[in-house]
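[agent] plan:
  1. take the single chain provided in the ticket
  2. run structure prediction with default settings
  3. attach structure tokens to the ticket
  4. add a short note for the reviewer (M.T.)
[agent] executing step 1
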Amino acid sequence: MELEKITKPFESPQRRRYDDACGAAHALDLVGERWALLVIRELIFGPKRFSDLRAGLPGISANVLTQRLEGLEESGLVVRRKLPPPAAVQVYELTAWGYESEPIFQALGRWAARSPSHDPTLPFSSVSLLLSLRTMLDPARAAGFDARIGLHLGTETFVARIAEGRIDIAAGPLDKADVTFIGPAAVIAAAIYGGQSLESLEKGGALSVDGDRGLAQRFVTLFPLPEKASSTA
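[agent] step 2 finished; step 3 output follows
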């Protein structure tokens, strides 16, 4: 089966390797190519079509995405399968081993959030938001918080269940959510991490909040960012 959406024939370039027995070096052999880690990131919350992956990675070309998917399949991190009717479309999905990579993204995200040069205005996918919530939740701030938070992100819906200082997020209907945020991932991130008030975002038409306002106001305070790193030794 040929990979879909490729724009023109190509021969995959020989992958460069470090020839180093260190586990970190081998990890880079597996996922060190440009875009490879971000392709994995976009699959953390479940299988996606080729077009969905491109939508979450607006800077990637169809050819490069095809190459990365091939490489990740070869490494045993991604598989292709066809959904049963009525969908009957091809999707890409992480293997069980591929899903084990999530702590890598959490560690990298928390570390990089301390960078003084981090630019939060760049594109921000729905998966990026969801991963950030699982990474940045402060158990102390979340003590006593027990609620289902709906997240309506474009055509996708997710429910975040926070209880006992932990968060679980899964795709699904929003009918049992105590409060639902409706808007782009970047806008919801602005409320959580950027210090923008829910009221101002709603007034500007960028965000809608449906449900318990008190829960919504507290929810956006549960994810403090780490302090920025000093630029001096």
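[agent] step 4 note for reviewer: The first strand starts at residue 78 and ends at 82.
[agent] ticket updated
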